[in-house]
Amino acid sequence: MAKDHGPSIKNDEQYEKLVDEGMSREKAARIANDPNSGKKGGKASKYEDRTKEELYEKAKEIGIEGRGDMTKDELIEALRNH
């Protein structure tokens, strides 16, 4: 049974697993709180297949700073490493 992390974490079991695998608490919480998390089955489009605008919107959604000055490749790197 997963520890209850309170109302800020929607999927405690997934959150704990991600943190145990070495993911940052912030990123693990973002994934565990996504209602689509675990339902896509790896079918999300690759970052390289998305437009720069789509990448910008995703970066905005998760709070990556400096995104307005980034190239598409820089946005991809920032999203992967956030």
From TrEMBL:
Residues 1-54 are annotated as: Disordered. One of its GO terms (biological process) is DNA-templated transcription termination. Residues 1-29, 45-54 have a biased composition (Basic and acidic residues). Transmembrane segments: none annotated. Residues 53-79 form the Rho termination factor-like N-terminal domain. SUPFAM superfamilies: Rho N-terminal domain-like. It comes from the Bacteria. This is Rho termination factor. It comes from Christiangramia sabulilitoris.
